[in-house]
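Lab meeting minutes (informal)
Scribe: AK
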Amino acid sequence: MSNAHAQTESVGEVVGCDKMSVTGEDEALPVEGSVKICCCKSSNEHSAEGSIEEMFLDSKGREIAELEQPEILSMLPNFEGKRVLELGAGIGRHTKNIAERASHVTAVDFMENFIQKNKEANGKHPHVEFLCADVTHLERQPASYDIIFSNWLLMYLGDDEVQKLLNKMLMWLVDDGQLFFHESCFGQSGDKSRTSNPTFYRSPMVYGALLDAAHNVTPDGSISSFELMWGRSLQAYIQLKSNPNQLCWLYKKVTKPGVANGHPGEHPSFQQFLDKQQYSLNGILRYERIFGKEFISTGGLQTTKEFVPSLNLKVGEKVIDVGCGIGGSAFYMAENFGVQVLGVDLSANMISIAQERTLQYQQLFDKVQFEICDVTVREFLPETFDVVYTRDTLLHIADKPTLFKKFLSWLKPGGRLLITDYCCGTDPWTPDFAEYVKHRGYHLLDVRSYGKIIEEAGFTKVVAEDKTSMFVSVLTEELTKFRKEKDSFIKEFTAEDYDAIVSGWAAKLERCQVGQQKWGLFLATKS
C-alpha cells in the first residue's frame, strides 16, 4: 500500500490505497496545507455516475436536496474554526459548506465515484482530506476532531459494527466534542428500484440504546460516553414525501470519573435515568394500558378533551407540547383543531414510540413533529408558538422560574399557557412522601406557590386551580377499569407489572387522601 499520509506537492494529488486504506501505524493527524486522497476499488449499482439521484436513491433527489441541505446545515453545531470528520461525505454536498468555515475537514466515503466527485468539487480547499475508506477499519488519532458529522452511514452497519465505531468516535472526539448523525428509520424512503438493499432500518430507540452503550476508557481511568442533546425528523422529507422516517440526532461527548468495574453507568444523565427506570420501554407500554392509547398522563384522552378547549385553539396555530410522552395530546390537538404541534420530551423511549405511532396518522405528517430534547436547555426564537401545553411533566424540573421565563419568550403576544402538574400540600412532608419524591426525582410545589412563580415570570391572567378531587376521581376510575382487565394485561405483561400499577395507583390515592399529594391546573396568558 502506498503511503496515504505523505504531504502532497499540489492540491488534488491522488495517492492509491486499498479498501482497508486508513488503518494502524500509517495514521497521522490532519496536516493543514495538504490534501490526501485515498480511493479504494469498489463498485455499486447506484454509484456509476455519482449523481444526486444516486445518492438519494430517489427520483425526487434534487428537490429533496434543495430543501434538505440548508435544513441539515442549520442543525449542525457551530463548526467555525473546528476540526470536522465527515463520514458518508458522498459527492460533497455538505463538504463545501463545512470547508468554508472549518479549520480542517476529513471527508470519508466508501464509494469511489462519490469521493472523486467530492474531490473535483472541493479539492481547491487545502485543509480538506478526502478518503475513500471502509469506516469499520478507519483509525484516527485520539482527540483529533471537534465535530463528527455522519450522514446515512450507521444504517449500513450491523449493530456490532455500529457499537465499535461509536466507541472509536468517543476516542477521536475532544471532550465536549459533538456527534451529529442522520439515518433512515423504520423503512425505505427512496423510490428507486434496487436489486439488493443492505440497509438496517432501525427504530430511534435502537439508536438510542447503541449510543447509551458506547463508552471509552481514558488512560487515567475516566469514562467517556455520549449524552443526548436532541433528536428530530427532517422536514424536507415530510414536505416532499410525507415521510417522517428521516431522523437526525446531536450528541455530546462527556467524560466522568471511572467506576470500579471500568464500565459506564454509575453517573447516568437524567435522560438515561428516565429511560432506564420510570420510562423504560416496558414501563411506558404498561402505563399506556391504564392511561389509554397513546397517553402517559393522568386521565388520558378524557382530561385532554376537558382541558384543551380552554385554549381556544385556532387552525394553523403553533403549539409546543412539552413532555409530550408518546403523542396522544399532540395527535388529538392536530386532528381536532388543525394546529401545528411540536412534541418534545427528554425520554428517547417516549419519542421513539411517538415517532413510530406517527406512521398511523399519515394525514397529520405535516402537522405533528416530535423531538427528543431537554427543554431546559433547548432554545427557540422569540414568539415562535401560540400555545405552550404541558401535562404532568414539569415535576421533574427544579428551576421552574427560569423555564417559565423561556416559555414566555417563546410565546407570541396573546399566547396561552396550560399546565397540569403534580403538586404537594402545605403541611410538612411525611418521611414516606419525602422518599417517594426523592426516588422519582420530583421537585414539587404547592398549588398557590406554583401559580405565583408563573405570575412572577411575567404571565398575566394566571389561574392556579387545585384539581386534586378530579385527580382522585380519575385515578379511581382508571384503577377500577384496569382491575377488570387483569387477565388480558398479565398475558401481555407480567403479574409483577400488574401489581406495580395497582400498588402505584393505590399509593397515589392514599397520598392524596392525607393531603400530601395534590394536582394543579394552571392557565396563563402572555400580554
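Next up, CB showed the second protein from the same session:
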Amino acid sequence: MASGEEDMQNPGLAGDPPQQSHAAFLGKLGLLEFYPNRLTLKYLLEINHDTMSDKELLSLKDVPLAFLKKLLMVNTKCWNYTCTDSETTPNKDSDNDDDEEEEDNEYDGEEDMYSDDGKVNPLDLVTALYHCADSFLQQEMAIKMSMCQFAIPFLLPQFSESCCSLMLWALRNIYKEWRPRDQLNTKQYVEDSVVHAQIPVLSFVRLGNCSLSKSQLLNHVLSNAQHINVFTHRDMSGGNAPKKIANGLVEIAWCLPSGKSTIDVFPEPVAIANMRGEISSSDTQFSFLMKVSAAVFVFLDTMTDEERQLLDSQGSLKSKLFLVINTQRKGLQRKYTNALKLKEERVLRRERRLNMAESNTLITDAMKTALKECTEMSTLEEMSDIALNMGISVDENKVKASVSAKATAETIMKGIGNSPVEDYKKIQLPLQGDILKELAKTEIEACRLQNPGSLSLEEHKAQLHMKRQKLREHQRTIKISEAAGMFIQALSTVDKDERAFFLRWIALQLDRKSRKRTNRTPQRIPRSLHGK
C-alpha cells in the first residue's frame, strides 16, 4: 500500500466524543490524541530511536505502541507487552473449583477506572487500539492477529450511542485455506476470503456469573493439545486485570480441517464467535449472534427468572441454544430443560470435578452435533444486512470515501469475468494488445539491429523509426475505454482518502478473482488449525 494511503486520517470515521470514563482510560494508555481513528500504519512504520530498540515500559502509555510493534512483527508473545516492566504478574493455574471466580476475572466489585496499576487487560488494549486505528491499520492488525492464530474483533463495542460495529472491512483481506471432507483423496484444497466463505458460526456467551472460563475451554477445544491461546483468558499476562471497555466485544476465530483426522478437530470448517461480558448487558450482540449462528452455547452456573426470560424471548431461535451448566446439582439440568422447553441433549451439565480434557470432550461432542444439524450457512458479508437491520453499524459503511470508492471499483470490475480475459483486454485495454507487442518488437530490433536484410544499417534504422512513428500515431487514434477512463478519474481525485480506499478495493477484488482462477495443488496442507 502506498504511503499516501497509510497516512490517512479517516475523517469519515469521526464519531461522538468518548464518555468521560472511556476518555480517561484512553488517556491512561496515551491514546486519547489518536481517537477516533487517527493512528496510522505510516506512523507505526516510522524509523526512529524508539523503534530501533526495545524501550523499557515505564508506564501504561508505553504499552500500546510496544504491543503493536510486536504484533506487526507477527510475534506471538506480544501479549506479554500488556504490563509495565515494574509490574509482576505471576501466572497461576486456574482453580475450576472456586465458585466465586468469574470468567475473565469480571468482578462484581467496583474497580477504580482511573488507577494505574501497571497492567491492562489484553481485551481492553485491543478494543482501545481498534478505536484509535484508521481503517487500514485495523486491516493490518487483523491480518497479523490471524497469522499469530489469535481471535480477531468481530463486533466492536462503541463509545457512542451505537452499541457496536460489525468489523467487516477489517476482515476483508484475510484468506484461509482448508481441505474439506469431499477432497480427502485429492491434493487440492479450498482457499477463500473469510468474508465470502460460507462457514457455519458457533457462538459462545456467558449468562450471569460463571466460574468456568469458556475462553480457556475454547482454547483447549480449538488447539487440539497444541496449547495455542486463540482467545485471551485470565491466566495470561494482564488477563486478570478487570475489563474497562471490552465488555460486549465479540471475537471470531476459525477452526479449519487439513484433511488429517489425527489433527483435525472438526471434519468441516467452522467459525467460533466468543462474546466477552454478560449477555444481559449486551443484548444486541446476543440477539445478533442468535440470528447468524448455527448454535449458541450459553455458559452459566445458575439462572434467575429474568435471565430465563431473556433466553425465552428468543422465540423460534431458542432451538439454537445449548446450555452449559457448571454445577454439581443434577436437578438443575432437568429444571432448565423443562423451563426453556429444550431437548435434553442441549442442556449439558459440566461437573466441577471434571478436568479440562473431559470438559473438552463434552463441548466438542455438542459442537459436532450442532454442525450436523446445520442446514443453512451465510457469509460474513451477508450478515452485514442483518446487522444493519438491528441497528448495528458496519465499519466500511461509516466512511463516505470507502462507500464511493467501493462503488467505483465494482463498476470497473463488472466486465471482468463475464467474458474471457483476452476479450476484456482487447476491449478495455486496447493499447496493451497487438499494437504494444509490435511496438515492443520494433524497439528491441532498433536496439539490436540484427535483421537489416538487404538494407544498410542506416536505412534499417530509418525504416524502424518510421514504423515506430506509425504505431504511435495509431495508438493516439484509439480513445480511452470506459473502464480505463473511470480508473484514471478515480486516481486523479483530489480526495486522497477516496483514492486510497479505491486502490484497496480494486486490489481486494482483483486478488479474489485471481485466486478463484488459480488452480493450486500443493503437496501438503500446513499443520495449522487456522489455515495459513
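CB comment: The chain has two domains: 3-398, 401-517.
No objections, moving on.
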